[in-house]
Amino acid sequence: MSGESKMHYYVNWAKERLDEMDAALTSLEAKVPQVKADSKMKAEQAIADLKRRRDEFASLAKKETEAGEAAWQGVQTELQSQWNSFEGQLQTYLESAGKQIEQQRATFLNIAAAQAKAWREAADTFHHEAGKIAAAKRADLDAAINQMKADAGQAEARFDKLKQVGSETWAALGAALAESRKAFDRANQKAADALKGAGSGKAV
Q1: How open is the CA angle 123-170-81, to the nearest 5 degrees?
Q2: φ and ψ at 133, to 5 degrees?
Q3: pTM for the model
Q4: Residues β-bridged to residue 202
Q5: Secondary structure of residue 151 in the 3-state scheme
Q6: Taking Cα atoms as reference points, which of 85, 116, 92 lies closest to residue 174?
Q7: CA separation (Å) from 112 to 13, 14, 133, 136, 138?
Q8: What is the DSSP letter of 133?
Q9: Which of 12, 43, 99, 106 has its CA 20 to 30 A from that of 137?
Q10: Over 60: is that where the pLDDT of 2 sits?
């Protein structure tokens, strides 16, 4: 894959994870004032730990974006590990919230909104890049972008169904988010591959 198209993949991937982290933290912080006094310190500590993990991820992603594709290849596994740690700690916190379904639901809605935004922004990025490519070379990229938009619509429809049900456990909500995230990664990769394939025919 060409450096430029691979960087689009990496940047979209990292931004999607950061948007989810920010959405989760926003949701958790909004509920701290409602937590009982004996649990408040524990909640604040958990949020501080999640912020630290988010900040480490953001710092490394920013550094590697500035360094380029070769640097990304060297740290992709580390970034994935940092993401997994954040996600695992978030899941533990939400599951320990027990019957605080409202907290789980609010967090799900915030993360689902962040995912939907990431889908749209990635599609827009690839659409912008498509404008730089000669029309004759653009068919696969246009198809990948259209598929990304369709997949985004399907993900949002699934989230809407879960919103209406209202009684799903965090495990079920988290599984829906993970499924959407995997679909995003596949669509992002497909669009980046199509961009690479079309890149040899850039408009002059």
Answers
A1: 60
A2: -110, 140
A3: 0.74
A4: 133
A5: helix
A6: 92
A7: 16, 16, 32, 36, 31
A8: B
A9: 12
A10: no
